[in-house]
Amino acid sequence: MTVGSFALIFLNFGHMRPLPWQAEAMNTHPDQNSSSDRSKGRAGRQTAGLCLGALFALSLSACGSSDPSSNASASAPQSPSSASASSTATASSSADASPASFKAAAEKALSSVEGSKGASSIDKDRGGYEVDIQLADGSGVDVFVAADGTATQETDGPDDRSNDPLLDLDQLEEIFQAAQGTPEGKGGTVDSVSTSDSTNAAYEVNLTSSSGDDTEIKLTRELKVLGTDTDEHDDGVNSTSPSQSASALANDAQTLGKVAQAAIAAADAQGVDSIEIERKGYDVEVQLQDGRSTDVHVDGAIKATVTGQTPEKDDDADALLDPAKFDGIIKASQDAVAAAGGGKGSLASISTTNDGNAYYEISIDLENGKDAEVQLDKNLQVLNTDIDQD
C-alpha cells in the first residue's frame, strides 16, 4: 500500500459516521452523570482510537512488506460492547451507604414485586442491596437491587416469613443518625438496617465502625439505644475472652439489686423475673401489676428505659426474683460450676423458671471462653450443671 493510499483511507475514516453506540455516547447530555453513560463515552473514544491505530499499523505493515499473509497478523480492535460492559461493571461495583440510597433501593424493590406490602430489612451487599419484601398475602420474597437500579427477584420464590414488622422508610435517616450517634457507631458505615421481632428492640442496625469492627446497635421504637455489640477483629493483641467482655459491667449481688429496683420503678412493675447482663447494659424482664410482662433496659449508670414494646400476657408466668437472695444464688451457681470442672466464671444471666423442680436458672461465662448453665431449686440446692463442651 502506498502512502497516498493510506492518506485516502485516513481522510475517508474522518468522514465515517459513528456507530449507533458511539453516537449515543457522543450525544450524551453533559448533565447526565451516570456511571454507565460515562463508561459508554470512554468506550467510544477508546474504540475509535483503536480503530485508527489499527489502520495506521496496517498501512505500515503493508509498506514494509508485500507479503499478503502479513496483513493477517494485524490485531482486531476491542469490541464496543466488551469495553462498555467492563467500564460499567467497574463503575457499579459498590453501593452507597446513605439513608437516601437505602430508601431508594427499598422503593425500587417494592415497585418491582406485585402485591408488595413493605420492606423489613435492607442489606448493602454484592455491590447493591438485598431487600426483604413482605407481600400482601403474608408471604415474603427477597429482591436484589443493583447499584444501577436494576431489581431482580431471588429465584427461590416467596417464603413464609411474615411476622417481622415493616420498616418506616421515611424514618431511615433518623434511624441512621441514632445508630451513628453512639460512641461505637460514630464515623461508621451502615451495612444493614432491619426491624426486630424481639421484645427488646424495634430496630437492628449493623455497621462497620471507623476502626473496621463489625457493630450491631439495637434501638427502641423511639430510637433510644438499647445496647451495642461489637465484634472486634482479633489481631492477636489485647484480645479478650467472652467472660472478660461480659465482666465490663458489674454483676455482683448489690448491683443486680439496684438494677432490679430501677427496672421496677421505670415500668411501675410488681417485680422482676430475669436479668441478662449484656456488653453495654442489663436487659430486664419485669411483670406488671396486671400480670402482663415487658422488658426494661438498664444502662451501666443504672438508668432504666422501658423498651416501648407492647406488654404481653403470660398465662404461665415465672415466679419473681428475690433480690435478697442474689448473693446466695450467685455463690451456689459458681460453686456448682467449679465442682463440675468448669473453673471460674462470670455471671451472665439470672432468672426464675418453671422447668420441672427447678426454680432458678443461672448462666455463667467461663474464663476459657465456654459457658455453663446451673439450675437450683427454691432452697438454692443444685439440681443440674451443664457445661458447654464445644
Provide structural commentary.
This protein has 390 residues and is an alpha+beta fold. It contains nine helices and 17 strands. The protein has helices at residues 3-14, 20-26, 35-64, 80-91, 99-112, 172-180, 242-246, 253-267, 326-339, and strands at 116-125, 128-135, 140-146, 151-153, 189-195, 203-208, 214-219, 225-231, 269-277, 281-288, 292-299, 304-306, 312-313, 345-352, 360-366, 371-376, 382-387. A hairpin with a 7-residue loop joins strand 14 (345-352) and strand 15 (360-366). The model is unreliable at 1-93 and 233-247 (pLDDT under 50).
Secondary-structure element sequence? HHHHHEEEEHEEEEHHEEEEEHEEEE
Strands, count: 17
Ranges where pLDDT stays below 50 over 5 or more residues in a row are: 1-93, 233-247
Assign a percent range to the helix content: 25-40%
Shape field: elongated
- Backbone CA Rg: 32 Å
Given helix and strand content, the structural type is alpha+beta
Average pLDDT metric: 74
Helical stretch count? 9
Distance between the termini: 79 Å
The proportion of strand residues reads: 25-35%
Largest sheet at a glance?
9 strands, antiparallel
Topology summary:
Layout: H1 3-14, H2 20-26, H3 35-64, H4 80-91, H5 99-112, E1 116-125, E2 128-135, E3 140-146, E4 151-153, H6 172-180, E5 189-195, E6 203-208, E7 214-219, E8 225-231, H7 242-246, H8 253-267, E9 269-277, E10 281-288, E11 292-299, E12 304-306, E13 312-313, H9 326-339, E14 345-352, E15 360-366, E16 371-376, E17 382-387
Helix pairs in contact: 1-3, 2-3, 3-4
